[in-house]
């Protein structure tokens, strides 16, 4: 064979081998059915509600829920900016906002719209989210004296709407798959409907039989939270990107801690002995750099988070005494600052936020000093904290900052959600989905009483 024909034939050998192998071997075809469904068990339907149950309620902003301090320096309704995150604290920041926690409901609503597994058909959904701004709808009952005696009907118009409009959505699972948000402590919404006289500042929506199977996400739950689950108080930090989240955590990690302990909150002395009064008395008697006091009375900390965050960055421990209710927003400010929280009762956090901050790990990132030992037993807080070895404090701080992204409410519209990991809302929604699955299983197994179990509230969402 001529040499040039031999070379040409050799050039075709790989092609001939490919055709022989392809047509003589079994063909494997990957279909969509063979791939795992990333939304299996995670589909959420957003129930369409008339505006009177959500957006119309924002019209109360100029009178009912303005920022607490310096109203003349804040434009009317400024707290509604950025879908409830509030205005930016200054022009150069992209992460820090003047956030009013009472507006968690519209912000949560906006973030749910970003979920990757939304279902247009409620029949195809695993959970049904009700974008009802419940705490805002309660304002007439708690602000207008003439409405006080009618606070038992809070939520009744919503119940009537759900029973009348597409009743099949509610009846399909008897409400066990429904969830909504309450921007406040559950106790404020749990007055028995038949109570007389009515207690000022409370309603009865959590006691309404129409909602008995719903899951309520609250800022503070009751001691038997089979109906509700606590989620973190919103802080002022809402990073839009992963690098901004990383940058803040790096700053908190390298911050120089020159003060032993810090208390940020109201500084008025209580009329009778309690843990807050003991803290104020102990700090007032110190002339060294052991205790820092940040006066947040009258909303002094609402407009500028630097007022308390910078001192927190400089402190090793942040004291978290209970106030009007056991929980405090300051707890989550401390987590972000890497300032080890000091609790004086379990109800302040350990029994509240099990999905976000698992109870069995509290000794890894916090200190607990029983309040009675301080108020009645003469225990000195500063001495107790000074005795904690510095290596142990550093370990707790490192663990705290590892968990910080879990209590952050990421800004809506974030395109790097996967990179940033799960934030407070992602964890809350996953917790609700897990709770619904367990309820369905209990009902299918004929163990209806198991839906009242609180075991789920102590299990971390990963």
TrEMBL record:
Membrane topology: Single-pass type II membrane protein
Keywords on record: Glycosyltransferase, Golgi apparatus, Signal-anchor, Transferase, Transmembrane
Molecular-function annotations in GO: glycosyltransferase activity
Subcellular localization: Golgi apparatus membrane
GO cellular component, one term: Golgi membrane
Chief localisation class: Golgi
InterPro entries in the cross-refs: Exostosin, Exostosin_GT47
Xref: Pfam families: Exostosin_GT47
Span of domain Exostosin GT47: 39-375
Family (UniProt): Belongs to the glycosyltransferase 47 family.
Protein name (Swiss-Prot/TrEMBL): Exostosin family protein
Species in which this protein is naturally found: Brachypodium distachyon (Purple false brome)
